[in-house]
Amino acid sequence: MHKGILLMLIFTALISGCQSAKVETETKNEEIVIRENIAAGGEHHQTQVVIYELTDDIFQLPLTSIPYYKNGNITYLEDYVFEQHEDGHQPWLGTGRDVVTVNTSNLTGEDNPFLNLNYDNPKELKTPSGIVIQEQTNELINLIVPGIGTYEIELKSPPGTSVLFIKKITLYLKLE
Fold it and tell me: What is the pTM of this model?
């Protein structure tokens, strides 16, 4: 599974013309941006792929009209979810680490990857398979997946609620 994802990304970069030292290709319809930067000497390069992104103006829409990323699918939350959260129910909806854990298991290439999390360090959760969830801030979480790379996940709350939405997912592949 991991090799298939990596091969697909490499193939996409190749057909986009990655023969040059710096490539920036934007596909507006799919909202995917591939940026490839080759470090000094060309021994190491990192590929950055924006997988999902909501612009700031989206967060000005009514709460039930804002796309909610859930394991690769786009859903829309009902009014009662916001009401319950504001009444103290479902507090995890306002915690970045928990929102990422619940809504991004599709990015790991594993079924149920977060079942046996190690909570020894509250800022860095680990799975037995080596997946790491690092909390940089409540609105910036890194999801490190061995064999794939590091996902940087940005979250944001729209005005009027503390429910966090995934705003942007960027995958950083390090190829040597």
Answer: 0.74
